[in-house]
Here is the input.
Amino acid sequence: MSKEVKLFIGPNHPGMHGNASVHLYVEGDTVVRSRLVPGFLHRGFEKLMERRTWMQNLALIPRICVPEPDINEMVYAMAIEALTKVEVPERAHWIRMLILELARIASHLMALGGIGGSTGLYTMPNWTLADRDLILDIFEKITGARIYHMYIVPGGVRKDLPEGIKADILKLVDYIEGRSEEFENLLLKNRIIRTRTKGLGVLTREDALKLGISGVALRATGLPNDLRKIAPYARYDHVQFEVPTATEGDAFARFTLKYYEMGQSLRILRQIVEKIPDGPVNIRISEGSALRWKVPAGSVYAHVESSRGEYGYFVVSDGSERPYRINVRGASFPQGLYGIEKLLPGTRIEDVALWLATMDFCPPEIDR
Amino acid sequence: MSIYDGLKKTFWGPTIAWKRLFTRPVTIKVPEVYREAAERYRGFHVNDWDKCSGCSTCSKICPTDAIRMVPVDITVESGKKAQRPAIDYGRCSFCAMCVDICTTGSLNMTREYIHISDDPGTFFFLPDETGIHHDIPPMGYSRDENSELLDLERVVMKELPGEERIDSFIEFVKGYSREQAIAEAARCVDCELCVEACPVNMDIPRYIESVFHDDTEEGANWIYKTNPLPSVCGRVCTHKCETVCSIGNRGKPLAIRWLKRYIMDQEKTEDVIRYASNGEVVKKACGKVAIIGAGPAGLSAAYYLSLMGYSATIFESKALAGGVMRYGIPRYRLPDEALDKDIKVIESLGVEIKCLTTVGKDVTLEEIRDEYDAVFLGTGFSKGRSTGVEGVDSEGVIMAIPLLEKIRDYLRQGDGEKPPVTDSVIVIGGGNVAMDAARSVARIQKMERNHIDVKVTSLESMEEMPADLEEILEGKEEGIKYFPSRGPKEVLLKDGKIYGLKTIACTRVFDDDGRFNPRFDESDLSTIEGTMIIEAIGQAPDYDFLPVEIKGEIQFIRGRILVNEKGQTALAWLFAGGDIVNGPDIIHGVADGHRAAIGIDEFLAGVKK
Here is the structure.
């Protein structure tokens, strides 16, 4: 009879992810039971939001997700616009879409780098993070900051696009498209990577739907579930793109879908640059100064398709200057909390980090 | 199709990475290579101290509480505070909301990425124009119209249009509705610059906040702590507060006066009486104080003395209390009902107002002195000043002050003596009284003859005219014609009747030191036609009621009574305030009344001991 041993992964950055601890009970090389121990990254975002004014929260919310902060700004803005019944100017919709797609590519690049990190292929994170920095350069030009943009605000966006940004974006799109051969050869066609990830962490559609897993993990089971298609926000119904799917449901399918999605995002970026209309970029959402901004009472759920799946805020306002309650629906909450207990067992120890990486495990979405 | 079919497995594929050995690295060698951030980069703060008003709005919006206001050793002009924002970069999140909300536009950010120091103190930083590294840094993020966080536009007050309001003396400023008042109050950033500027230091941000929270009862309570004439001040105050309002730096200042009026209009007189008597009762004193003149200063003194426990009696020569508020300011700006409300509240505290009692005639000052423990003089400027030009003593030339008084009496009684107004009137003067006279006369002309012909001539140019700009513009809307930069020379008479005013050009009103010292160009003559002339070049006090020996003992400076910081004259029992001390202004009168009440209390406490 083999002996069960307890192992710990984390809490310091297990793989590419934020701080969280995973307790593993292993027999030999195989995980028999596993449990997430969250709380290492808990900063009380939801509670802090109730103590700050609607405006001040704009500086707080992007911090829930470092690689893709803009989704927070977007759902926050969408929720408040729904409560105040304000229609955002046309140009603002397109600028928001531009930001969100740039962020999606940046986040996917980081995630693909994470696959390399979890398999010992360190060239991949070096390459993808260097390329991600080029996107951050564009963010810096548009928003004034590289990571926490605080750019999508209720009512539109904070500033109009700077001069000459379209050329910069097209240059970036061309560059990343030109990198595809290198990325494919290094990662996707790589024998070792394919051998290690084929059949790893297979997720069935039933399990995914039962737990509420969305994003590439669900799309890798053959369901083309993408909020940009099924519940279009901004102007996603005005641009052409496809939702790549796979049927294998394994780790390889998941990160390969991310790669294909990057291609679709680049395609959307080209269309945005071509179609973006002129006009105002925001409208006043409240009377008075930002210090005395009140949002009408009510509750609303706003959600977007993040790089990791459905991401949403449930916002409750009592009509005062501060939110009454905001609940964050983290995209990777289901797979991070329940998935680790239910789906991770059966995986070999050396594949746990890979499992976490391809499942888009993101601790801040659990500890919020 | 399987996902594995899309891309075929290769063995040599990953070797593609080797070619990168021969390309240049993408990383930058910092610090050998200097990299400047993007134009909008939110780097470190810079603050233009000349522009900054120390309003602290940046520290209020700061989501991370990184900004603290630090007292600085500089001399500041009125409407600014000697404090500047200091930023703790251990807390700052570089969100730039401070830049977007800056009321003056003095705060901006640089394009610097890095600050390195072994001194932790440098991370708590008081920015000036030179930035954190004390060079002239490249400018980064700044506010634009899209990122604006203030509301620069004032909520529009409903007013009757010029052609409609000229038909009557009905108050034409209609007041804010509940929604409008809340929207206007929401513009306030609670900077408190107005408190300093207000002569009575009203708790303006507090009562504006009350309006914002839709609690006018609380607002009225705040108001009555410092101002017993709010319904009046809510309409006709000279609003020094709005002049310094920090929103006014880049936009329209808050309508502080209208918000005060809104609060008082919402609250019933009975309720206000309750709040007023709930006010800060300093102590329960006893003593009798006589007040001469039921104008702003006298009423204010009576209010505060009553709250302290004194019995206050006001002697008023006119039939009704109110002074300039009752007999000077036209009814379309200040209706009797608003004034009655304020006076009723003051009377409810036990203040006795003896109307039609002229001191010096019905009762002498000596008698009053013998009967009362202290006396406060608030007799105001009751006489007009004359230009003294040739022909000014002829019939048809009158002073603005008695005319305005007549008009108000006429309107109040309906059947009283009709004010003498002809169909073509010239008003000499460029101040608010001149405007009041011109606009009142225009209304009477319109009501009686359906034709307006009022000409206002002043020494000052349109830009220099001391009247409030809104008064000048409203007068224009009502059909008044202006003849600025003209000095009166002679009243033109034919058969003893006025037919015009001969004027000469005024080339300069103030000298280089800013003193009134007009220069004229005698060669530039012109005639303004008119059959009646109103002199409104200034008002003067009337000290006839003062006995000669008292006049001899108190000091005067250019017609005004000299008092100490407690409102006390050289005679210990005699206090003074209002126009006769500080010149014509209602809110200064209220302040003087309060000051004298405190002075009288101290004086009487000393005497009793």
About this structure: Chain B has 22 helices and 22 strands. Chain B touches chain A through 53 residues (CB under 8 Å).
